[in-house]
Each structure stands twice: as structure tokens, then as C-alpha cells.
Write a structure and sequence with these properties.
The complex is a heterodimer of chains A (338) and B (422). With 338 residues, chain A is α/β, with parallel strands linked by helices. Chain A has two domains: 204 residues, Periplasmic binding protein-like II (D-Maltodextrin-Binding Protein, domain 2); 96 residues, D-Maltodextrin-Binding Protein, domain 2, CATH 3.40.190. Chain A contains 14 helices and 14 strands. In chain A, the strands form five sheets. In chain A, strands 10-9-11-8-12 form a five-stranded mixed beta sheet. Chain A has a three-stranded parallel beta sheet with strand order 4-1-5. In chain A, strand 2 and strand 3 form a beta hairpin. In chain A, helix 3 runs antiparallel to helix 13 and helix 9 packs across helix 13. Chain A is globular and about 60 Å long. With 422 residues, chain B is mostly helical. Chain B has a domain of 214 residues: MetI-like (MetI-like fold, Orthogonal Bundle). Helices cover 62% and strands 8% of the residues of chain B. In chain B, the strands form four sheets. Chain B has a three-stranded antiparallel beta sheet with strand order 1-2-9. In chain B, strands 3-6 form a two-stranded antiparallel ribbon. In chain B, strands 4-5 form a two-stranded antiparallel ribbon. In chain B, helix 6 packs antiparallel against helix 7. The longest helix of chain B is centred in the N-terminal third of the chain and has 33 residues. Chain B starts with 15 loop residues before the first helix and ends in a 5-residue tail after the last helix. The chains are: A alpha/beta (338), B mainly alpha (422). Chains A and B meet through helix 4, helix 6 and strand 10 of A and helix 5 and helix 11 of B.
Chain lengths: 338, 422
């Protein structure tokens, strides 16, 4: 008797899991909460502040999606993931989307069966060394001990870089950014390598950031962006266009400050379509008409998120560079809202 | 009138399967068995179907693709262009290395502590109690992380060795460098080396065997064989005449001279570590991760072994000690010749499970970045290829094989030392 109850429960759980995989959008709506995978803590991109509130550039994307779907930017459950656990977490349905400085690569897209919905930060792998080592180029690092987060593309780039330059190194594999920081500061490794943005963010938390330099070599292309599971295109579209809404908002000059008056209606039809006063884009996505407005209001447009979390006025101090709007000579470009 | 009737024919009817107690238990077992197999088949089928809909049918082809990542501690030659299979093999060897080192150290420390905890010396006994209680009541992961943190934070970085008046200097007559990247010790080198034999060509499982090492082992083995012969002869003479010829010098000579001559012929010398560039070069590098993992696992498991040893000793009746004392044996010899051999019978079975625990706990290596098989096959390979099911199944198979082998060896040993009763 008891056994049949257990099996019945198992079957129901199995069916529920199957149903969950089918429609993530409905699932998120039913749950009233978005499960978003982020890093275990990288200041500027995703890290809890003093009050335990998650803050950062990637966190901003999660909040924008939550605002677009549920109308509430706070309705997010942040799930910290390491480089190793992130894909399993996404593939198993533990999280609905992953916004964790994840590089868009062929094999992750095709073989691991994920859909990258866009790029929110164009990055490249760099090296950080203490100034006192007197190293000015990564090619002088022959024989150095290199701290590296394991299970990342940086691990493969590093091996390729040293092999193609015919120099040797000693890898010290590390699970999280915090451990890497500890080992690097104690001198257990000479070099710390990861995405240049991550290095800048890590350096900003040091007691004396000026004692460390980023080497000029950028050894890889690392387009970082949010991703979802293959096979649920409706949900993929929601995340893709939420990100595009942030980018388009910046392009069209819609900010969290002026969005209130713009939502009343403007004479620019694209702004009207974005903010839901014209057309039925929200309906097409299966969302409310003001989804775009909610997404931008969650934390500001793309530019505001950038400046507020990792821009030049913050301790991390990253320049827009490649991440400027296409109109300013950068690569950030959203397809039209039409 | 005869009342003889034919004995009832042992005819079998189907209903007997339920109503006859002789068959009922068989019926129940058969039904349970079929049910269990159906359940297992359903689970497996369900998994396979679900994996297929996800487009993730189990395939092991990824093992032959280039791994693309580097491994710092390599017991065999390896570079990032080798296959995932070879990377896994290197990981497996690293697991075995730390497991073997850990088991040996844990046994030595454990036996010592277990015996000392029974010491009549109050301070010694109490110190050992504190050690045992401290180590076995804190999770081993914390000990591993603590050991790593101490090594990293308290030891000098290699750059502290540089300059005219360095902050740190090498130990033991400039032969050993203790840094926060690990300990560099001198390595044995041969100037007239006989080279290596390459086995298995270019396959993923290829390995080299040092001819020098084989030669040394053969010569040393012959020496030991010679020593047993000399001892046997001495025993024969002793039994025949009552006088045992002095074999000390012959044995010492046999032990050292042939191997020494061979080492000299091979041009044996030590390669010392030297600070070059960013790091020490030369010598054997024992990485922090290995030391931390090895220390923590040994000390943790030793605490359990100490308790087993203490229990084993206490299980030997006190009468044995008194009898040995009555014969005039000193306490040390009583322990060695009377108590421990009897205690071993109680000690060995639980020891097996402790060795197994140590081996399995070595998978916590990832916490300190030690590249064991969980770090290579179950870590980077799994991550880069996305083949979770396949890699985890292979990992389970590896640990199962290691554990069963340890069990087998220990059970064989247990059978050898156990009390033979009539």
C-alpha cells in the first residue's frame, strides 16, 4: 500500500518534471519567481551587498527578465553557481536562465544544447600580475604559476596560449573567484587569469589595487551573455528580448528617469512599441503590454546598468570599449522592435 | 484384510504454489524478484528514453577527443593535446597516489596513537585522547581546507628566497625548499641512464618504464635473496652444531654493496631545486594540494584507526599480559609479541572500511585543486564535454574497482592472520 503511494508520487513528480521542461514561461509565471543562476560572487557582476541583496550587472539582467515576466524585479531567486555546476543546474531545470559571465562558444551552444540569447558583455581573457614582478607582457611568463578557475573556457585558452608561444607554466586549478584571490594575494601563484572584466572586478576589491597590473595581452574572445535551455524557444525569446529591450532603451535614450513621461506616449513609434503604448509586442511574447517598460524600470537601461555596476565611476572602472552602443562605435546592437 | 494403501503420489498442482508451505516461500521470492527486475527495467528504460528526448544518448566517443587542458601533477607524460582518456588516467594515478600515501601514513600514526592512548603516562594518554577527539569529530573537508590555508598563508612565497638578503632560505643544507607552492626536495638522477622502455606506443594508456629502476630492483631483489640464503645456511649450521655463525657483516655487505656498485655505475646523483625565474626548478615538487590532502586525510583517518587499535588491544584478555609478565617478558615485548598479534584479528576487518573511506574521501581533493580523477574526469572533462552521465558512471566504476581491490587484498590478509580454530 505504502509502496504504491511512493511510486504514485514518483510518477507524479516525473510528470511534473516533464511538464516543467515544456514551458518555462508558464512555469515561472505559476511559481511567481524567476530562478536565475549567477556567480558565487564577483563584485560588479553578481555579488550580495552588505544587506544580502544581490547586486551587479548580471543580476540586472535577471531582474529585468523578472520584471518583464512577473512585473516585479524583486521576484528573483538567485542561485549561486560555480564554473562547474552552472550547466548542470541549467540543464536539469534547477534554474530558468543563467546569467553568469558565461562565454558563448560553439560546443556549448551545439553540443551542450543551450541557447545563448545574446551578448551583454564583450570580454577577452587577460592576465593580472603583481607590479613588483616587473612583467610587462604575457609572453614573459615562462615557468610562472598561474591560478585559474577550473571548468571554464579560460582553462582551454590558457593551455592554447602557452602552447602556441612555446612557453611552460604551472596551472593551479581553483573552484571560485574568492579562492583564487586568496591564493594570488598570498603569492601561491604569480598570475591570475580570467576574463579581463573579472580581473578588474577582483582587483577593485584588493587593499592596494595599484600594486597589481593587467597585462596588455587579451588572448581570447569571450562574448558573455545569458543563456537558456535548447528547445524552449518561447522562453528563449522572452529572455532575448528583455535583454534587447535594455539595449534598445539606451539607444533610444529611454532611461529610468524619463521612462515615466515616455510611457505616456511619444512621437517615436519604436519607443512606443518598446514601452507598449503602440502595437502588441507584449502579447506576441505572452507577456503584459508594459513588459518592456518594466524591464527597463527594473534597473535602468543597458548603459545605466553598466555605469552603475562596472563603469568608470565605480571601483571596478571598466571603460565601455567594445561594449559601447553601435552608434558610438561599439558592438552593442539590438535588432529592431517591430 | 490388508490395510496397506499406496503412498500418496507426489503430484504437483499449481495451487500448491500458494497453499503448500514447502513452495510458498519460493513463490513469494520469485514474484518479488520479477517485481524488482520490472522496476529496474522501468527505471533504466525511463532514463534512456528521457535522455534520448533530451538528445543525450550515452556515448563514450568524447574520451578519444583532445582534452585541451593542462594538469599540474603528472605521474606520466601528458600535454593538453592528449585525449580525455589520458587525462582521466592521470587523474586516476593521482587518486591512487594520495590514497596509498594516506593509507600508509594513517596506519603508522593510528597504531602509534592507539597504543599510546593506553599508556600509563597520564600526559601522553590525554594528549592522544585530545588528538583523537579533535580529528574525528570535525569533517575531513574542513581539515583539508585548513591544512591548505595554513600552507598557503604561513609559508614564504618563492620570491621571498630572492635577493642578497632573502627573507627565507632553503632548509637542510640548501637541499629542500619549503614554499607556499609546495615543497621541493632533491630528485634522484642518473648521468649514465639506461633510458626508458616505451610501452603501448602512442595510445592513451602509454607509459614509460625506467630501465634504471628495473635494474636497481633486480639487483636489490637478488641481494635480499642472497641474505635469506645466508640466514638459512646459518640456521642449518645452528641446528646441526648449536653455534650460529656471525652473519651480520655478510648480510650488511650483501644489502649495500651490489646496489651501491650499480648506483655508482649508473652515475647516481641528486638534482637539487634551484630558484630560476618565477619558481624553483629541478628537484621533485610536492605540491601544496597534495601535501594538504595527504596530511588531512592521514590525520583524520588515523584518529579512527587509533580507536580501532585501542579497541583491539583492550579486546585481548588481561590474562595474556599477566601470563607474559609471569614469564618475565618486558612490557615492550609483551605488546609486540603477545598482545598485538592477537589484537590484529579484531583490528583488521574495521581497518578495511577505514582504508575504503580514506580512498573515497580523497575525492574531496577538488576543494584544494588537487587533480585527482574527480578533478579531471569528473570535473574538467565533464564540464568541457557536458557528458555528465557518462563521466559520473565511469567515476563510479573507477571508485568501485579501487575499493573492491582494497577489500580483496585486505580480506586475503585477514584470512591469513585470523585465528585458526579446530
Amino acid at each position: 500500500m505504502k509502496k504504491s503511494v511512493v511510486f504514485g508520487a514518483l510518477t507524479v513528480a516525473g510528470l511534473a518534471a516533464g511538464a516543467a521542461a515544456a514551458g518555462t514561461l508558464d512555469d515561472v509565471k505559476a511559481r511567481g519567481k524567476l530562478n536565475c543562476g549567477v556567480t558565487t560572487g564577483l563584485v560588479g557582476f553578481a555579488a550580495p551587498d552588505a544587506n544580502g541583496e544581490w547586486m551587479g550587472f548580471d543580476v540586472g539582467v535577471c531582474r529585468a527578465v523578472a520584471a518583464a515576466v512577473l512585473g516585479d524585479p524583486k521576484a528573483v531567486e538567485f542561485v549561486p553557481t560555480t564554473g562547474k555546476t552552472r550547466f548542470t543546474a541549467l540543464a536539469s531545470g534547477e534554474i530558468d536562465m543563467l546569467a553568469r559571465n558565461t562565454t558563448w562558444t560553439f560546443s556549448r551552444d551545439v553540443d551542450l544544447k543551450f541557447t545563448f540569447v545574446g551578448v551583454n558583455y564583450y570580454d577577452g581573457q587577460g592576465f593580472m600580475v603583481p607590479k613588483e614582478l616587473g612583467v610587462s607582457s604575457a609572453k614573459e611568463l615562462d615557468g610562472a604559476t598561474v591560478c585559474i578557475q577550473t571548468g571554464t573556457t579560460t582553462e582551454l585558452n590558457l593551455a592554447d596560449f602557452f602552447r602556441s608561444n612555446n612557453i611552460s607554466y604551472e596551472p593551479v586549478p581553483i573552484e571560485t573567484n574568492a579562492e583564487a584571490q586568496q591564493q594570488y594575494l598570498a603569492g601561491a601563484c604569480d598570475v591570475y587569469t580570467t576574463d579581463a572584466s573579472g580581473l578588474a572586478a577582483t582587483r577593485a576589491t584588493f587593499e592596494d589595487p595599484s600594486a597589481h597590473v593587467l597585462l596588455p595581452e587579451i588572448i581570447s574572445k569571450e562574448p558573455l551573455g545569458p543563456l537558456v535551455r535548447h528547445g524552449d524557444d518561447a522562453w528563449g525569446d522572452v529572455v532575448r528580448w528583455s535583454l534587447n529591450a535594455l539595449i534598445t532603451a539606451e539607444e533610444l535614450g529611454v532611461t529610468s528617469a524619463n521612462i515615466g513621461e515616455m510611457a505616456a506616449g511619444t512621437n517615436n513609434p519604436e519607443i512606443n512599441r518598446l514601452l507598449g503604448t503602440e502595437g502588441n509586442l507584449g502579447e506576441m511574447l505572452g507577456l503584459s503590454a508594459d513588459w518592456g517598460k518594466n524591464a527597463v524600470m527594473a534597473g535602468g537601461n543597458y548603459g545605466e546598468l553598466f555605469e552603475g555596476n562596472i563603469g568608470e565611476s565605480t571601483p571596478i572602472g571598466l571603460a565601455r570599449g567594445l561594449n559601447a552602443q553601435w552608434t558610438d562605435g561599439g558592438l552593442i546592437y539590438s535588432p529592431p522592435f517591430r | 484384510m490388508t490395510t496397506l494403501t499406496d503412498p500418496p503420489k507426489a503430484s504437483f498442482r499449481l495451487s500448491m504454489l500458494i497453499y503448500d508451505t514447502r513452495y510458498r516461500s519460493l513463490t513469494i521470492q520469485a514474484v518479488a524478484m520479477i517485481g524488482f527486475m520490472l522496476l529496474a527495467a522501468w527505471l533504466i528504460n525511463n532514463t534512456m528514453t528521457n535522455l534520448e528526448t533530451l538528445g543525450k544518448t550515452p556515448q563514450f566517443g568524447f574520451l578519444l577527443e583532445p582534452a585541451g587542458y593542462d594538469i599540474n601533477q603528472r605521474l606520466l607524460d601528458y600535454n593538453s593535446q592528449d585525449t580525455h582518456m589520458r587525462a582521466s588516467l592521470l587523474g586516476l594515478l593521482n587518486t591512487l597516489l594520495v590514497a596509498v600515501m594516506g593509507c600508509i601514513t594513517a596506519t603508522v600514526i593510528g597504531v602509534l596513537v592507539g597504543v599510546l592512548r593506553l599508556s600509563k603516562n597520564w600526559i601522553v594518554a590525554k594528549i592522544m585522547t585530545v588528538y583523537v577527539e579533535m580529528f574525528r569529530n570535525v569533517p575531513v573537508l574542513l581539515w583539508i581546507v585548513l591544512a591548505m590555508a595554513i600552507l598557503i598563508e604561513s609559508l614564504p612565497a618563492p620570491r621571498a628566497f630572492r635577493g642578497e638578503n632573502p627573507e627565507a632560505t632553503m632548509n637542510l643544507f640548501d637541499t629542500v625548499a619549503v614554499t607556499n607552492r609546495g615543497i621541493y626536495v632533491p630528485e634522484p638522477l642518473f648521468s649514465n641512464s639506461l633510458g626508458n622502455i616505451h610501452l603501448l606506443g602512442q595510445s592513451s594508456l602509454r607509459f614509460d618504464v625506467s630501465v634504471d629502476l628495473i635494474a636497481i630492483l633486480i639487483v636489490f631483489g637478488l641481494s635480499i635473496f642472497g641474505i635469506t640464503k645466508v640466514n638459512a645456511r646459518a640456521k642449518r649450521i645452528q641446528e646441526a652444531t648449536g653455534d650460529r655463525p656471525n652473519t651480520l657483516w655478510t648480510n650488511l655487505g650483501l644489502f649495500f654493496v651490489p646496489t651501491g656498485i650499480l648506483l655508482a655505475a649508473l652515475g647516481f646523483h641528486l638534482g637539487y631545486p634551484e630558484l630560476k625565474g618565477f619558481n624553483f626548478k629541478g628537484g621533485t615538487h610536492m605540491r601544496n594540494s597534495l601535501i594538504a590532502l595527504w596530511l588531512a586525510l592521514s590525520l583524520y583517518t588515523a584518529a579512527f584507526i587509533a580507536e580501532i587499535v585501542r579497541g583491539g588491544i583492550l579486546a585481548v584478555s588481561h590474562g595474556q599480559t599477566e601470563a607474559a609478565n609471569a614469564l618475565g617478558m618486558r612490557p615492550g615485548r609483551t605488546m609486540r609479541l603477545v598482545i598485538l598479534p592477537q589484537a590484529l584479528r579484531v583490528i583488521i576487518p574495521p581497518m578495511i572500511s577505514n582504508y575504503l573511506n580514506l580512498t573515497k574521501n580523497s575525492s574531496l581533493a577538488i576543494a584544494v585543486g588537487y587533480m585527482d580523477i574527480t578533478g579531471t574526469l569528473g570535473g574538467i572533462t565533464m564540464n568541457q564535454t557536458g557528458r555528465e552521465l557518462e563521466t559520473v558512471l565511469m567515476l563510479m566504476l573507477c571508485y568501485l574497482t579501487i575499493s573492491l581491490s582494497i577489500s580483496m587484498v585486505m580480506n586475503w590478509y585477514n584470512n591469513r592472520v585470523k585465528l585458526v580454530e579446530r
